[in-house]
Fold:
Amino acid sequence: RVASGPPPPADAAARRRVEEWLAAAARKQASDLLLVAGYPPAVRVDGDLLFLDDRRLSPAEVTRLCVSIL
Structure:
């Protein structure tokens, strides 16, 4: 289902986290940043996954992180 109405307010803290992970991905020359519920954030470097954190992301957190950069 597609939600109607105005988008949720921007989450500055979530946006900062995504920007930090993107910066780490660039430093590591990663091809991808992966934000998957149930797993820690990861980057793909030369085909290998490298986790950027030990904490697993919840489904709500992944949504919040992705919406923060739209």
Q: What stands out?
A: Helices lie at 12-27, 59-68. The mean pLDDT is 91. Residues 38 and 69 are 20 Å apart (CA to CA). The radius of gyration is 13 Å.
